[in-house]
Amino acid sequence: xxxxxxxxxxxxxxxxxxxxxxxxxxxxxxxxxxxxxxxxxxxxxxxxxxxxxxxxxxxxxxxxxxxxxxxxxxxxxxxxxxxxxxxxxxxxxxxxxxxxxxxxxxxxxxxxxxxxxxxxxxxxxxxxxxxxxxxxxxxxxxxxxxxxxxxxxxxxxxxxxxxxxxxxxxxxxxxxxxx
Length: 179
What we know:
CATH class: Alpha Beta
Strand content: 15-25%
CATH superfamily: Flavodoxin domain
Number of helices: 7
Distance between the termini: 8 Å
Radius of gyration: 16 Å
CATH architecture: 3-Layer(aba) Sandwich
Number of domains: 1
């Protein structure tokens, strides 16, 4: 079972802490092969809606999107993990998701499980969490993928999530939903 973690954080803070807890849970799944892609530092040229990929099954621009899209295609489960930036996912993650368009027909209908982990400074009733969760759910629904969890956590300072034992235990337990 291949599990792909898309890490949208450009820093080593609470989102990384969440993914470390998830990896701890994934380590308990005997056949799990975990790959993590750090969105930060990837060379992704923004989609220009030229539609050339429709006939080529790849983007015309030479960037890192083909290798990322190949990992998405090969995965049985995908977890989108991002901090909140201005009521949305990070630009680094959004660039990668936009390039899914180049493989949209190949991705459509593939049996995949999807989860999302969003970390922000706002209280849990803030709409920023729902905005991101809804966008990821819409992408998964459009592609025919099954969303198995959407979790959000409040962490104001870089080490806040690491100090929240209940949240870390919950995140570790999310791994079982990806089986």
